[in-house]
Amino acid sequence: MKHHNRPTKSESPFILTGKLICGKCGSLMTGDSGTSGTGKIHYYYTCAEKKKRKSCDKKSVQEDWWT
Ligand SMILES: [Zn+2]
């Protein structure tokens, strides 16, 4: 097993893409970003099933949800 000790500051903020699973339907959560009313960019994950077919009512998860 390799260990990567460098910080997780890559060009992609969505470090959990492919790892986060929707607790409601079991689909992958995919990264997305948006701008708040104050102009601050924030990142969140949305259930892929919800995005595609709107057949899931899982709420989007904010990036800082696990920090
Ligand atoms: Zn879902």
What are the main properties of this structure?
67 residues; mainly beta; three-stranded antiparallel beta sheet; flat; binds zinc ion
How does this structure look, described?
The protein is mainly beta and 67 residues long. The protein has one domain (13-67). 9% of the residues lie in helices and 24% in strands. A hairpin with a 5-residue loop joins strand 1 and strand 2. The longest helix is centred in the last third of the chain and has 6 residues, at 48-53. The chain is flat and about 40 Å long. The structure holds zinc ion. Zinc ion binds at residues 22, 24-25, 27, 47, 49-50, 56, 58.
Q: How would you summarize the topology of this molecule?
A:
Blueprint (H helix, E strand, L loop, with lengths): L28 E7 L5 E7 H6 L7 E2 L5
Antiparallel strand pairs: 1-2, 2-3
The structure holds zinc ion.
The site of zinc ion has 9 residues, from helix 1.
Order of helices and strands: EEHE
Please state the overall shape, judged from the principal axes of the Cα atoms: flat
Name the helicity range: under 10%
Taking strands numbered 1, 2, ... along the chain, how are they ordered across the largest sheet?
1-2-3
Poorly predicted tracts of residues: none
Radius of gyration: 14 Å
Largest sheet composition: 3 strands, antiparallel
Strand content: 15-25%
Average pLDDT number: 83
Distance between the termini: 25 Å
Total number of helical segments? 1
Query: What is the strand tally?
Result: 3
Bound molecules: zinc ion
Please give the domain count: 1
Structure class: mainly beta
